[in-house]
Amino acid sequence: MRIGHSYDLHNLLPGTGFYLGGIFIPTNFTVEAISDGDVLLHTIGEAIIGALGYGDLGQWFKPTTEKFSSTKIITHALTLLKKEGYQIVNIDTTVIIDEPKLSPFRDKIKATLGELLELSAKQINLKFTTTEKNFPTIIQAQTVILLQKL
């Protein structure tokens, strides 16, 4: 068994929406990032990479002028996972943002994560909370993941 953890944070800027868990959330903000800024996919990918002992995202994905889909991070992490002979037991993740409220998107995000990671809904725990308006211009995510050898 191996445990991985990751934390990510991005600034929010005026815009038309952002990606979270592989789906587009329409709102008055966008995420400032070199990728599509999907903090949830970033932390899940990095938690897998970290649990396997492969460092952090910065070692695998260098800053670039071209935006890319964060599903690329998941694809890379799953390649390493399979190479090392592990599988995901479960994921526990928290997204922290004041606005918009994310609860209406929970089922769609979990379904998308299940497809991307080949997991059942029971293996994915997705929580949402706020900063109580202390940090209204950021989005954060934290993920803990448990892996087991095949």
UniProtKB/TrEMBL annotation:
Catalytic activity as recorded in UniProt: 4-CDP-2-C-methyl-D-erythritol 2-phosphate = 2-C-methyl-D-erythritol 2,4-cyclic diphosphate + CMP
Residues that hold 4-CDP-2-C-methyl-D-erythritol 2-phosphate according to the record: 8-10, 56-58, 129-132
Cofactors (names): a divalent metal cation
Enzyme class: lyase
Pathway field: Isoprenoid biosynthesis; isopentenyl diphosphate biosynthesis via DXP pathway; isopentenyl diphosphate from 1-deoxy-D-xylulose 5-phosphate: step 4/6
Any one Gene Ontology molecular-function term assigned to this protein's record: metal ion binding
One Pfam family of this chain: YgbB
Protein known as: 2-C-methyl-D-erythritol 2,4-cyclodiphosphate synthase
Keywords: Isoprene biosynthesis, Lyase, Metal-binding
Swiss-Prot/TrEMBL site (Transition state stabilizer) positions: 130
Binding-site positions, a divalent metal cation: 8, 10, 42
EC number in record: 4.6.1.12
InterPro entries, per the entry: MECDP_synthase, MECDP_synthase_sf
Domain named 2-C-methyl-D-erythritol 2,4-cyclodiphosphate synthase: residues: 1-147
